[in-house]
Design goal:
By secondary structure, the chain is mostly helical. The protein has a domain of 61 residues: Orthogonal Bundle (Arc Repressor Mutant, subunit A), CATH 1.10.10. Helices cover 64% and strands 7% of the residues. The protein has a two-stranded antiparallel ribbon. The radius of gyration is 18 Å and the shape is globular.
Length: 152
Amino acid sequence: MTEPPLPFRIVNWIGIIDQLASTEANRALKPLGMQLPHLVLLNHFSHRPDEAKTVTGIARALQQPQPGVTKNVQKLVAKGWLRERTNGGDGRSKLLVLTPAGLAKHRAAVAALAPGLARAFGDWTERDQRSLFTMLDRLKLWFDQDRNRPPQ
């Protein structure tokens, strides 16, 4: 049997790492009353904490089904980590903003994940970590820019 092409193997490995890391992250986040999808949303908001977002915009950015995003957004609103306000431009939708409690919860989640990540990279040099990050960032940017390409 021949090996699959190297690009497939790379992306497959990233998927396996994602699954393993997600399981560990959910374990670390549980004491905070949070699951990984909640952290993904808080992380999305944390890059521009003052920017209001709609569920539709979040679903598009995260490439996730809108009903699932709506469900998780509602949980974060109920916990006080996101706040809803009326969308003056569209009465059918709400604008969502990160609250100070949500930003604090995001920081607590990052801190909760730090020990496991430190173990994972414990024997890596700073240079190796930066090199991996640079290559992964390049791959992420390509996928991000290619996401709206029509199917072939």
